């Protein structure tokens, strides 16, 4: 089995004002360097990643790396990599851009659209799934 479920948490949010508390509850549970952010377009993956970076102490301006594929942010504990694989056509593109070096670097990797690189995902990772329905977000962390 590829997934190591150490902890599972589910949050229901009616407002973006809940995000700081949700992220504050998740951060102490992180034991792996790769976090997969799953959710439909517009579910709030990038918004949630922005809150992660704020709480990790980054002072950088956070934006989606849709065209660059990866953005690097500095935090007091080191680099954090933010990936968006939405626009890749196949896993070879992620492999060619150095995904594996990032994934095994020991730095935190926050990955949007991981379903585009399923066979390249390391053995140990967390999954954060966002379901946005009727302006209510259900956020699950495993």
From TrEMBL:
The keyword Transferase is assigned to this record: no
Alphabetical GO biological process terms: tRNA threonylcarbamoyladenosine modification
Keywords: ATP-binding, Cytoplasm, Magnesium, Metal-binding, Nucleotide-binding, tRNA processing
Any single Gene Ontology cellular-component annotation: cytoplasm
Segments passing through the bilayer: none
Subcellular location: Cytoplasm
Family: Belongs to the TsaE family.
NCBIfam families reported in the protein's UniProt record: T6A_YjeE (TIGR00150)
PANTHER family xref list: TRNA THREONYLCARBAMOYLADENOSINE BIOSYNTHESIS PROTEIN TSAE
Protein name as annotated: tRNA threonylcarbamoyladenosine biosynthesis protein TsaE
Species assigned in the record: Profundicola chukchiensis
């Amino acid at each position: 089995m590829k997934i190591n479920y150490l902890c599972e948490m589910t949050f229901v949010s009616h407002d973006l004002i809940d995000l700081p508390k949700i992220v504050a509850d998740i951060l102490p549970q992180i034991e792996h360097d790769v976090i997969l952010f799953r959710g439909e377009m517009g579910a709030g993956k990038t918004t949630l990643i922005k809150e992660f970076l704020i709480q990790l102490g980054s002072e950088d301006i956070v934006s989606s790396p849709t065209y660059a594929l990866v953005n690097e942010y500095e935090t007091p504990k080191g680099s954090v990599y933010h990936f968006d694989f939405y626009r890749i056509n196949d896993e070879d593109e992620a492999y060619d851009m150095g995904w594996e070096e990032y994934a095994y670097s020991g730095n935190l990797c926050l990955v949007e659209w991981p379903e585009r690189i399923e066979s390249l995902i390391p053995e140990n990772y967390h999954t954060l799934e966002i379901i946005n329905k009727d302006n209510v977000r259900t956020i699950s962390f495993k």
